[in-house]
Design brief:
By secondary structure, the chain is α/β, with parallel strands linked by helices. It is about 50% helix and about 15% strand. The structure holds flavin-adenine dinucleotide (FAD).
């Protein structure tokens, strides 16, 4: 089923879409444990699960498609395959699209990706909108895209970033997933700007449950998300107490989601970090809202 149809079906229930992100583990050992992880995540009945794609690995033997196949065929949940394009040429992208078609995978999250300095660039695609156009011309896929409530780090300003986002949507993106954020007001302001710009596809709010301090510092560095003062205070207070910080991180994420749902968000996308314990805890906190 295409993600667009999932949104249409869910709309009839008056509830937001719930989806998860997972990544293919790098280590052999973790890859063996992925079945147990998937089983627990799928037991939470997400509307779909997206699987990330590394920048610069083998396009053909990638674990992303393998995991997506498993999610679809073994667990009966719809997968979205992420696809990045800075380090892949048109031929490689076509090979992956062929793999997806052969396996009945209909949903792609089309991304530019970031530069991996250890891997040569291919220069067939410069931005995600070019990948979207290419996929669109290759077959009947649903295409999702990424968006940035606090502006993409490389964009000169928010207006330019929104104009570029509109270009991506006009090229064929029919669903957006947001970068993680901790300040809901930033998301609401962003959402309003998308509507003013004529972007009318559903926007899922990306939620990253915080489990430890180093994780959040890394994330804030990578994506530039603002840490609200009240959350900073919590992180500071429980810096030395892992268990308390875990509880506080879960409570913060649940609060964020409750507020988003009360404000009629289109969907909640949980960055699970392949951690079923965290995801179960969050879903338990919102089980009557979704
Ligand atoms: P684009 O939409 O191409 O935008 C990148 C920058 O270029 C922006 O500043 C934008 O304003 C500008 N721009 C866009 N189009 C144009 C244009 N036509 N002309 C001029 N400027 C333009 N990375 C991975 O490697 N693997 C993953 O699986 C992955 N999954 C992700 C999932 C989500 C939900 C998100 C939010 C990010 C993910 N990323 C992933 C990270 C992503 O690859 C980076 O954020 C990357 O820097 C931007 O990708 P994009 O597709 O948003 O780029």
């Amino acid at each position: 089923m295409k993600v667009t149809e999932i949104f249409e079906e869910k709309k009839k229930t008056g509830k937001p879409v719930l989806s998860f992100e997972i990544f293919p583990p790098k280590k052999e050992e973790a890859l063996k444990n992925i079945d147990a992880t998937l089983e627990r995540l799928c037991d939470l009945h997400p509307d779909f699960i997206s699987v990330t794609f590394g920048a610069g690995g083998s396009a053909v033997d990638n674990q992303t498609v393998e995991l997506a196949k498993k999610i679809k065929n073994r667990y009966g949940v719809e997968p979205i395959v992420h696809l990045t394009c800075l380090h892949y040429g048109k031929e490689e992208i076509s090979t992956i699209l062929h793999q997806l078609r052969e396996n009945g995978i209909e949903n792609i999250l089309a991304l530019r990706g970031d530069v991996n300095p250890n891997v040569p660039m291919k220069h067939d695609f410069r931005y995600a909108n070019e990948l979207v156009e290419y996929i669109k011309a290759q077959g009947d896929f649903h295409i999702s895209g990424a968006c940035y409530p606090e502006t993409h780090l490389e964009a000169p300003d928010a207006v330019t970033d929104i104009r570029n986002l509109k270009r991506k949507v006009d090229a064929g993106v029919s669903h957006l997933v947001s970068q993680l954020f901790f300040d809901n007001e930033a998301f609401y302001r962003f959402y309003e700007k998308t509507r003013i710009a004529g972007i009318d596809v559903p926007v899922e709010a990306g939620i990253m449950p915080v489990t430890n301090r180093s994780q959040i510092e890394r994330m804030v560095n990578i994506c530039g998300a603002t840490l609200p003062r009240k959350f900073e205070r919590v992180l500071h207070k429980y810096d030395e107490n892992k268990e308390a910080l875990f509880d506080a991180g879960m409570a913060y994420a649940i609060n964020q989601i409750v507020d988003l749902i009360a404000n009629d968000v289109d969907g909640i996308h949980i960055y699970t970090m392949n951690n079923p314990k965290v995801t179960e805890r969050i879903c338990d906190g919102i089980r009557n809202l979704i």
